[in-house]
Design goal:
single chain; 4 helices; alpha/beta; Hypothetical Protein Ychn, Chain: A; 5-stranded parallel beta sheet; 38% helix; transferase
Length: 112
């Protein structure tokens, strides 16, 4: 099984389609049997908020139920004013070190 890392970095407030496209790609890769991980970076970390961006958030939660792993950049979360208690269930506070590990272990890395 191949491992795919999707890095979402586009702020959904300015371009909601980019986040949606990245999430739909992740869903398609999961359906094809890939091990998929998403890291929320920069403005996309806002997607980690429990009540933020319902359309994309609901899709992300559905994908997490199908074994999608999701982390969000700790610095970006801090910048968005999101504490761990504010995050959607299942999203982990990540770091650049953890992202580097995910990237090294992945067969494919994509950014949206």
């Amino acid at each position: 099984m191949s491992t795919t890392l999707v890095i979402l970095q586009t702020d959904p407030a300015t371009d909601p389609d980019a986040a949606g496209e990245g999430l739909r790609f992740a869903g398609a890769a999961l359906a094809e049997g890939h091990d998929v991980r998403i890291h929320l970076l920069r403005g996309a970390a806002a997607l980690a908020g429990r009540d933020a961006y319902p359309e994309q958030g609901e899709l992300m939660e559905e994908l997490m139920e199908a074994d999608l792993a999701v982390s969000a950049c700790g610095k970006a979360l801090d910048g968005a004013g999101l504490a761990d208690a504010d995050l959607r269930p299942g999203i982990e506070r990540g770091s650049m070190k953890a992202l580097a590990g995910w990237a090294a272990a992945s067969d494919t890395v994509l950014t949206f």
